[in-house]
Amino acid sequence: MRREITLLAEAKDVRRVAMLTRQYSTRFAASLYAADFFRELAGAIARLGLADDPANYQLLSNAAAALPPDGRQDFLLTLAKSAVVYARFDAAAGAATEALRGARADTSDAARARLYLAASQIFSDGYDAAAADLQSLAASKLDRTDANLLAAARRVAAELRIAPDAAVVNAQERSPGDGDKDKADGPALTIERAQDALKRTSALAPMHEGGAP
């Protein structure tokens, strides 16, 4: 069943992935392989964009609802982090929000959920609140990977508010066509650099403390 779910995920058959995931989480949640499988599945969901559509996200989230609370929380946090890394910001926000609701206050899970939620929102209209939350998070509540992720997200948030060089602005005003291209490329390049930074931090250590790579 694990192999079939993995193949269906690669084929982007979201409905069948959700159906079999629900069956697996109901029947085999206590399996020795379940924790690693659900982490891998969460990573695949983010990498392949299976939860980009809100309806698909809900299908996949509901499919894991039968997991024990700790297992479901691990699934949601892994999905949120992986979605941030792959710039799937809507899926990241959805998973982080759910994880935050299920986390006890002032725990590492709550800190992780806040980190992923804020990182997913710095490119949105919620920038100000997200940037403030990133600054207020204590790195001491995070493992090494997430502390690096926090630092990277803070750098990206700061870069988004750096005023452009006056010479660049003047050049764009003199050459509107090129200026439009630069304005289009700017945010995309920032996101690409952010993704690279987040991917590098995710490779430094496991997705969660004590877990498998």
Structural topology:
Layout: H1 2-10, H2 14-27, H3 34-48, H4 54-63, H5 69-85, H6 89-102, H7 108-121, H8 127-136, H9 144-159, H10 166-174, H11 176-202
Helix pairs in contact: 1-2, 1-3, 2-4, 3-5, 5-6, 5-7, 6-7, 7-8, 8-9, 9-11, 10-11
Structural overview:
This protein has 213 residues and is mostly helical. 73% of the residues lie in helices and 0% in strands. Helix 5 packs parallel to helix 7. The longest helix is centred in the last third of the chain and has 27 residues. The two termini are 22 Å apart. The C terminus is likely disordered.
**Principal-axes shape call:** globular
Helical stretch tally: 11
**Which structural class do you get from the secondary structure elements?**
mainly alpha
For the record, give the distance between the C-alpha atoms at the N and C termini, rounded to a whole number. Answer: 22 Å
**Portion of residues within helices:** over 70%
Order of helices and strands, N to C?
Answer: HHHHHHHHHHH
Range of strand content: under 5%
What is the arithmetic mean of pLDDT? Answer: 84
Number of strands: 0
Radius of gyration: 19 Å
Task: Provide the low-confidence segments as ranges.
Answer: 165-169, 179-187, 204-213
Largest β-sheet summary: none
